[in-house]
Amino acid sequence: MVTALELYDPQIYELIRQEETRQSGAIRLIPSENYVSKAVMQASGSCLTNKYSEGYPGRRYYEGQQVTDLIERIAQERAKKLFKADHANVQPYSGSVANLAAYAALVNPGDTIMGMSLVDGGHLTHGWTVSHTSRFYKSVLYPVNPQTGRLDFDQIEALAKKHRPKIIISGATAYPREIDFEIFGQIAKAVGAYHVSDIAHVAGLVVAGIHKSPVPYADIVSTTTHKTLRGPRGGMLLCKKEHAENVDRSVFPGLQGGPHMHTLTAVAVAMAEANTPEFVAYAKQIVKNARALAEKLLEYGFNLVTGGTDNHLLLIDLRNKNVPGKKLAKALDRARIVTNYNTIPSDPAPPANPSGLRIGTPAITTRGMKEPEVRQIATLINRVVENIDDESVIEDVAKEALLLCSQFPVPDHFIVPNKNASKL
Ligand code: DSN
């Protein structure tokens, strides 16, 4: 069938087709990426993209909200139920905006916030130097323990007592272990700080009950809606009742204009999917796959930050392999294995050419790959590392990777249609 896009803009149509081919013909190991279901994709590409809905259900600044009000209410209710939260704001455009909205809901510009250092596994918006969050707020950064690669709560507490931040941020983007959100909550309480928890990476593991939820221990929980949660690219805030009004005002009109209703609609669909036993099984398999990948890489003599993983990602310290992260990531990409180069804690090399590689299992798990395939992937990675300058080996690995991809096609419908979705 010839589509409207193909007819009107063959150039862009062709590029989308190429990207589809790339995504299905590569082993995608970037831990923040995934494949959404056809249902999510359909909602995301729907007529909701045509609608402006500034405001909130029942109190908008534009008319014609008969349907959008219903959709946003469904999304709010699904989010509250899924995360067991008092209040949900489903409008943030992304995790970065959601984080800024959370800070602005709680404290004033110039106040001190304290988050995990980017080079140790935090996020730009946790107060990293080049992020505006470090201009709008005084920023204190906590590292991980350089020996263990793990969070050091004694040090975090000492820093909190010294700097008395108004907000302490828990959560990470390149930390392979479960985070104890309860301790973060206790430290924040002890110094009179708010606790904002950013679970963008592990939200899917949290809703599946694999990692402990920060919702009881945080004033505001921020998340993206893609990554392990497997929705469209968006953001969300969950909070206690007492912060609900401030959070809503902070998102709109504080930071954003009209919500992206097509994304919000697709987020609603993704949350229905996440509230199923199939999703729980999927999330468990993500972690099993990450552990199997870690074990096999350790057998090949790779050094893993913290020695392994509790979640969906691994951080490889490549120094003993004498291959820089960027060079390896590029060679792997040619071998149809897509990763990202990353700093390791206390990295002696600069972030633009760091000593680490970050890999994760959400996307390959969606394709149905399990432990045997994951071990095969570890072997392919090792072959590339050992033959980093030999393009013929890299070509052979690419062929094997493509074969593996063809055995695990991107599924059309990986969640059984949920007849009860409207009641969720
Ligand atoms: N950029 C995301 C990641 O890849 O982890 C975090 O926002």
Secondary structure layout plus pairing:
Blueprint: H1 4-8, H2 10-24, E1 27-28, H3 38-44, E2 55-56, E3 59-60, H4 66-83, E4 87-89, H5 95-106, E5 112-116, H6 133-136, E6 138-142, H7 153-163, E7 167-170, H8 181-190, E8 194-198, H9 203-207, E9 220-224, E10 235-239, H10 244-255, H11 261-274, H12 277-299, E11 303-304, E12 313-317, H13 325-334, E13 337-338, E14 340-342, E15 356-360, H14 362-366, H15 371-386, H16 391-407
Parallel strand pairs: 1-13, 5-6, 5-7, 7-8, 8-9
Antiparallel strand pairs: 2-3, 4-10, 9-10, 11-12, 12-15, 14-15
The protein binds D-serine (DSN).
D-serine (DSN) is lined by residues 32, 95, 123, 173, 200.
3D architecture notes:
- The protein has 424 residues and is an alpha/beta fold.
- It has two domains: 42-274, Aspartate Aminotransferase, domain 2, CATH 3.40.640.10; 277-407, Aspartate Aminotransferase, domain 1 (Alpha-Beta Complex).
- It contains 16 helices and 15 strands.
- The strands form four sheets. The protein has a seven-stranded mixed beta sheet, sandwiched between helices. Strands 11-12-15-14 form a four-stranded antiparallel beta sheet.
- Helix 3 packs antiparallel against helix 11 (261-274) and helix 7 (153-163) packs parallel to helix 8.
- The radius of gyration is 22 Å and the shape is globular.
- It starts with a helix and ends in a 17-residue tail after the last helix.
- The relative contact order is 0.15.
- The mean pLDDT is 96.
- The structure holds D-serine.
- D-serine binds next to loops.
